[in-house]
Amino acid sequence: MNVEILSLLVLVAMFVVASFVPVNLGILALVAAFLIGTGAGGLEVDKIFGGFPGDLFILIVGVTYLFALANDNGTLQRIIDLAMRAVGNRVAVIPWLMFLLAAFVAAAGALSAASVAIVAPMALRFADRHNISPMLMGLMVVQGATAGSFSPLSPFGAITNGLLSKKNLPSEPMGLFFNSLLFNLAVAVCVFLLFGGIKLIRERGRQRVAFATAAAVPDTTTTPAGGVALGPDTEENEPDAEEPRTTNSDEDTGGSREPKGAGHLELNQKSATLHQVCTVVAIVGLVLSTSLFQLDVGFVALTAAAAITLMAPSRYAESIKHIPWSAVLLVCGVLTYVEVLNQIGTIDYLSDALTASGNPLLTALAASYIGGVISAVASTAGVLGASIPLAIPLLEQGALPMLGTISAIGISSSVVDVSPLSTNGALLVANQRSVEPRVYFRRLLSWALIVIALAPLLSWLIFVVL
Fold first, then answer.
1. Is 60 exceeded by the pLDDT of residue 207?
2. Which DSSP letter does residue 230 get?
3. Measured between alpha carbons, how far is 389 from 391 in angstroms, rounded to an integer?
4. What is the pLDDT of residues 107-144, one digit of tens each?
5. Most Cβ neighbours (<10 Å): which of 122, 174, 180, 296?
6. Residue 222 in 3-state DSSP?
């Protein structure tokens, strides 16, 4: 058995074991990276260390630490309160707001991963507090980021159009952007319908019926001197309503109304407000610095988090425990093993198997699948640079439609970023709090496999064949 087949079998075995045994998949992956890399692959240990995704580690730790601080000082709850006032009881609108926000940040010039890193922590806390499926919310964020990631201002758009320019081929930046936007919007609609969006709409419908029914019931309540009618369920109608009671208003907590035990800091009004203002400035600065100046998201987030921590070191001493270390180990371990697969030739082996045909249409389909399969476990930017050149000779000959082929390959290479083995999916695993990380990882991977199987085929049919 050759090393490529062996390494793939080990990968499958790891996922099977981790699905039924409560052991961190990252640990299994690191052990496999060592055994396969040094044993069957003949790699030096330094090569294996070099495959550890240090940039992703900094990204996840920096962003989750910053938003852990924002949660502890009440900033996130204040933002959530303001957003909920804006949408009222239209909870079904929230996933679409997050989709649009992620799309805007990506289209403005941030990397897809940067957009997810900025939007996902808030979105998934919305989901946790308002009983929205974390799969629905997380996938909507990633689809939004992917939808905006091929704008002329974005890195993916620049990479794709740059590759065409180098070969003196005509590029259509806005056409590529709109094709990606519409395809991802269609996927988002499917996600919304499949992962609980209909339930959210029905719940609002039931609320309307309940309100209408209540309005039709004759008013039997009394109206106190203050002029506000009190129904049978209000606290003022309780036997002890006249007794003094402790409040937990915005004035007491600086806007944080998290449930008791949620872990937020007990700050006085003045310091809480100051910390919240500084945290909002840090988050806005994170968006602007990464979008306008292309600074590294992880290091900027970590720098901002350190600055906030130094404002009150003793009060934030426990916040570092809220970083999802188990998810960090899981994702970084698996990606280390994937890099070992790349170094021993397994990724190239898969690529060669997919491009065996010389038929132009089949070559375009193969390039789309190569982009989808590899991008699910590797850098999308790097995959674009490898998969698009596969079709360039045929584009130069005029054997394939230019915009359609580039759109199909680009979409196939980016839409699979929902995979938990990619940066975007990893950020979802690290930031959601509703489901045990191992379970969420498995659910996300199952959906990613469906996307990998269908998205390249659909994009090829829509943009190349039709």
1. no
2. B
3. 5
4. 876 678 878 888 888 889 888 878 889 999 999 999 99
5. 180
6. strand
Position 127: which residue type? A
Confidence of residue 450 (pLDDT cuts 50, 70, 90): very high
pLDDT surpasses 80 at 456: yes
**What is the four-CA torsion angle of 299, 300, 303, 307, rounded to 10 degrees?**
-160
Q: Which residues pair with 230 in a beta bridge?
A: 222
> What does the pLDDT read at residue 459?
93
A 10 A CB-CB count for 401 gives 16
Q: Which residues are CB-neighbours of 161 under 8 A, at least 6 positions away?
A: 152, 171, 173, 176
Distance CA 466, CA 458 (A): 11
What's the token pair of residue 62?
A: 């920096």
Average pLDDT over residues 28-39: 91
Residue pair 316/279 in contact (Cβ under 8 Å)? The answer is: no
Please tell me the predicted confidence (pLDDT) of residue 357.
59
The two structure tokens encoding residue 149: 């990631």
40 close to 3: Cβ distance less than 8 angstroms: yes
Nearest Cα neighbor of 78 from 287, 326, 254 is 254
Which residue has better confidence, 236 or 267? 267
- CA-based torsion, 424, 425, 427, 432: positive or negative: positive
- To which residue do tokens 């990397």 refer? 111
110 in Cβ contact with 423 (< 8 Å)? no
Cβ atoms of residues 47 and 18 within 8 Å: no
Count of CB atoms situated within 10 Å of the CB of 429:
26
Q: Tokens representing 208?
A: 């309307």
Residue 419 CA: distances (Å) to CA of 142, 344, 425: 10, 22, 5
Q: Which residues pair with 222 in a beta bridge?
A: 230
- Which pLDDT band, with edges at 50, 70 and 90, does 204 fall under? low
The predicted-structure confidence for 151-183, as pLDDT tens digits, reads as follows 887 778 877 887 788 778 888 888 999 999 999
Nearest to 332 by CA among 7, 41, 13, 55: 55
Interval 317-352: pLDDT, tens: 888 888 878 778 877 887 788 788 888 888 677 666
Per-residue buried b or exposed e for 101-113, using 16+ beta carbons within 10 Å of the residue's own CB = bbbbbbbbbbbbb
Q: How far is CA 270 from CA 180, 192, 251, 254, in A?
A: 46, 41, 10, 8
Q: What is the pTM of this model?
A: 0.66
**Which residue, among 34, 42, 41, has the nearest Cα to 349 in the 3D structure?**
41
Determine the Cα–Cα distance for residues 466 and 463; give it in Å rounded to an integer: 6
